[in-house]
Amino acid sequence: MKTAASPHILPHLPIDRNAGVPLHRQIYDGLRRAILDGLLRPGQRVPSTRVLAVELEVSRLPVLTAYEQLLHEGYLQGRVGAGTFVSEALPDDALRSIPLASRTTSSTTSSTTSSTTSSTASNTTPNSAPRSRRDGGLRPFRMSLPALDEFPHTLWARLVARHGRALTPRQMGYGDPAGLGALRAAIAEHLRTARAVRCEAEDVLVVSGSQAALRICAAVLLAAGDRVAVEEPGYPLARAALGASGAELAPVPVDDEGMDIAALHALGHRVRAACVTPSHQYPLGVSITAARRLALLDWAAHRGAWIIEDDYDSEYRYVSRPLGALQGMDSRGRVVYLGTFSKVLFPALRVGYLVVPPMLRRKFVEAREAFDLFSPTLYQLALADFLREGHFARHLRRMRAIYIGRRAALLDGLARHCGGRLSVHNADAGLHVTTFLAAGIRDGDVIERMGERGLTATALSSCYAGSARRSGLLLGFGGFSERRIGRATRVLGEILAAAKT
Prior knowledge:
39% of the residues lie in helices and 14% in strands. The model is unreliable at 1-7 and 93-136 (pLDDT under 50). It has 3 domains: 10-95, Arc Repressor Mutant, subunit A (Orthogonal Bundle); 116-127 and 153-389, Aspartate Aminotransferase, domain 2, CATH 3.40.640.10; 394-497, Aspartate Aminotransferase, domain 1 (Alpha-Beta Complex), CATH 3.90.1150. The chain is an alpha/beta fold and 501 residues long.
């Protein structure tokens, strides 16, 4: 059986150079723990010592030392000409953490589930309607746009053609509402290794993007009259999707440490769920601190509430190693995790995923089937191969290097042309930079002028549900060359220089 190349495993290796523990021991402990916890599976390929040393930004020696110890103890095994893999038979299986498949929840939790299942979603949404995602097309600084010019088109076309020529009658019929089994397994393996998500293939549902995932979450978890906590500021389309259930949106302030958990507690017991972007908050870019992550999980467990974790843009961080998912810290099954391939591959693919607690699987599959039956089988087949054959992991590594250059071009251009009227708030991760405008400059007016000059952006003020709004621009850089970004920042500087304050 062909095994997949493991994507980056940095969430399992929290290297601390200030600790009194040698680097090789930290690497050894992280890999061994991931193997025993089932996040790295028997037969799964691990990165080469050279690749891992580069990812960790350490010399190769401590990585070699850790691998040699793991090989000696039987956790890893080498295959001539193939690489290094997790051993099929582990030396101390009895010491493994509680298996994911045997996770159980209390009767209190189960009763909570039935009380939070919603009725049919209404067609009304509170607050203002979100702007069309078609606005701006492919103009700089379009948000949520990956490097389409660098996508491996030939490889992808070959995978699609391979399956297009070989579609069986069964594959041409109606598919599984939960998604193709091979793709669900590949997604689960990627999430376990790259994002430290605790999941099995049966926990994964394939959906048509993150917006569909949010609508399905709303249908299962919320009913008319419930309250759902949302970040303030936050993602407007998330508010629209969750509000479609008839639930009341309850904005919770976000500061430099993420969602204010004290403010969340103050909302009372009617809050049935909280929707958060903990690894890269939209739009401010901050990450929820470890203390607040634990406090949020504790809030959900004690209130019988749910956490909807939108892990968008989690693959790319530029000032620190990738952060593990909040879901991986959840031992009580209160987090519904969602992600999408739109920003790491291409938006027109329309494939996203949900990872749901075991107690909610049946309800989510039923809601997913009611939403649009199932996802197109052909793209699922091709994407499963893209992940299993290691193309996805290589694509992520290559894109990270490209985005580092494009991000640098944007920051340099803003400093050169926009100083004094625009300040960068956060550029730590993802495919956009969050900026604040000087006092008196309205972001809506600036975006209107940008449209006249062939540019686009997202107004920070549009991300607020309440009346207290900050003026700023969200500037996407992923989809544009460094040269084009440089020219665009010069035009933006001219627009800001002419702006009325």
